[in-house]
Design goal:
9 strands; two-stranded antiparallel sheet; Phosphorylase Kinase, domain 1; alpha+beta
């Protein structure tokens, strides 16, 4: 029996055939693969959706996750964690098969086959559309209860799930091999070192528990997805990651963008029997913000090194400035703007090359990508067209604003007797400019704001949540 494929692409045909052969072997009867489609989003493993049809005509919707994950766990470890989570009542997809290309020629080097769970994962829909209003009302508390169940999972038989050790050592050893962090993240790291809370655990930690990795329906949470960063660690890590500003997607509600910290902790305490303190959660929220900022730089290095050329990975490097700003907000060292700053205004008076200027050309290309190209394509191509349009918009703003910002930066750092931002970060870490702390903070704030005015000026006007929430 052969499947009807959604695309004539040869590579897709080959993958569909390999899936059909593997499922036929696993299920003991002929299986066809229909509608194989690569899903958008995600910069690590590839994810494909398809329908398996057996000899009796029974249809089953499945998902294939495949390929090595940079910094992630082997799929066998993911599968073990998913099975352990299911045993303690965490909603997860059904596991169908886990293996390697050696087990199933034609499939990715590592792969995981799971049942497809119906629902929505796209944060902007879940946080805004009326269809999910009922789910949003109780979701923060529900997420707390689910995390409490996960953290109670027995660790027996999970020896391959790594223990990550000290959370700050992990950040520095994993992400600071290429030099000091940007100054805003350096401020965050120093505060984290000086205000460390008591440790808890170790427990089974999802490692990326946030909107976007949660399948939600109108009735609430349906499945926890994407277990490639699972590890043994402190339970507060999942709670803090869930509340980090980056994962609120513009919402003022801190717990996954749908509820208050109080809601989340109420749900957690009801199952766990103990309640993390507000100070502990604040520390882990800031840890998450610093970690994501460092991860942005690490991911873009995969593109810059030539190991994995990708417009998505290229774009993500500039997002580190967003996390620098969020560190300043969390430490009370800056406040959001009331309005979004302008994007550079009129073109340069220096028209050696005539009109359109470089900035105007970049704007035209960006409009083409975001409009015509994105509208005429679908799936990953449409997604990457929008990413590319955002990159071109960044280039345009840098053409308009960069010269002035660079001159201002040099003057600011000269006033502190520092050569560059790397030296500023080192001074923050070693305390060598502590006697001039106000000047150091002002230098960090100015640099972060200049980077954001180029990288994403809208982020300067994204409101923060109230601390009591």
């Amino acid at each position: 029996m052969t499947g009807t494929l959604a695309s004539p692409d040869t590579a897709t045909d080959g993958l569909a055939g390999a899936l059909a052969r593997r499922l036929t072997q696993r299920l003991g009867g002929p299986v066809a693969v229909e509608g194989l489609t690569r899903l958008t989003g995600g910069a690590n493993r590839e994810t494909w959706a398809f329908t398996a049809v057996d000899g009796r005509g029974t249809h089953r919707d499945l998902v294939l996750r495949g390929g090595y994950s940079t910094g992630g766990r082997p799929v066998a470890v993911e599968a073990a964690a998913i099975a352990a989570a299911a045993r303690v009542g965490v909603p997860v997809p059904d596991l169908v098969d886990v293996g390697t290309g050696d087990d199933a020629p034609g499939l990715p080097a590592e792969y995981l086959l799971m049942g497809r769970v119906e629902g929505e994962t796209i944060p902007r829909r879940l946080l805004r559309e009326e269809a999910y209003a009922g789910a949003r009302a109780g979701l923060a508390r529900e997420l707390g209860t689910v995390l409490a169940r996960l953290h109670a999972a027995p660790l027996d038989g999970l020896d391959r799930v790594p223990a990550v050790g000290d959370p700050l050592d992990r950040l520095t050893e994993t992400f600071l091999t290429g030099g000091p962090p940007p100054p805003g993240l350096a401020l965050g790291l120093r505060w984290l070192r000086e205000n460390r809370p008591p440790a808890h655990g170790p427990v089974l930690v999802h490692g990326d528990f946030r909107m976007g990795n949660l399948m939600v329906g109108p009735d609430g949470l349906r499945a926890v997805l994407d277990w490639e960063l699972v590890h043994r660690g402190d339970p507060l890590e999942d709670l803090g990651w869930c509340c980090a500003k980056v994962w609120r997607f513009g919402s003022r509600l801190p717990a996954a963008g749908v509820g208050t910290r109080r809601d989340l902790l109420d749900g957690y305490a009801a199952v766990a029997g103990w309640r993390p303190t507000a100070d502990e959660l604040h520390w882990w929220e800031l840890h998450a913000t610093v970690q994501w900022g460092l991860m942005c730089r690490a991911m873009t290095e995969r593109h810059l090194s030539g190991a994995e050329p990708s417009v998505e990975l290229a774009a993500i490097g500039r997002r580190a400035a967003e996390q620098e700003f969020d560190v300043l907000l969390a430490l009370g060292l800056d406040t959001p703007d009331d309005t979004v700053p302008d994007d550079g205004g009129a073109p340069d008076d220096d028209l050696l090359y005539g009109r359109p200027t470089a900035a105007e050309l970049a704007g035209a290309v960006g409009d083409f990508l975001a409009g015509e190209v994105r509208g005429a394509t679908g799936g990953r191509t449409s997604f990457h067209a929008q990413v590319a349009a955002n990159v071109v918009a960044t280039v345009r703003r840098e053409l308009l604003l960069g010269d002035g910002a660079r001159a201002r930066r040099r003057a600011r750092l000269r006033g502190l007797a520092l050569a560059d931002d790397a030296a500023l970060s080192e001074a923050i870490a070693d305390g060598s400019r502590d006697d001039r702390r106000d000047e150091v903070v002002a230098a960090v704030r100015e640099g972060v704001r200049d980077r954001l005015r180029v990288g994403n000026p809208r982020h300067l006007a994204v409101p923060d949540a109230a601390p009591e929430d």
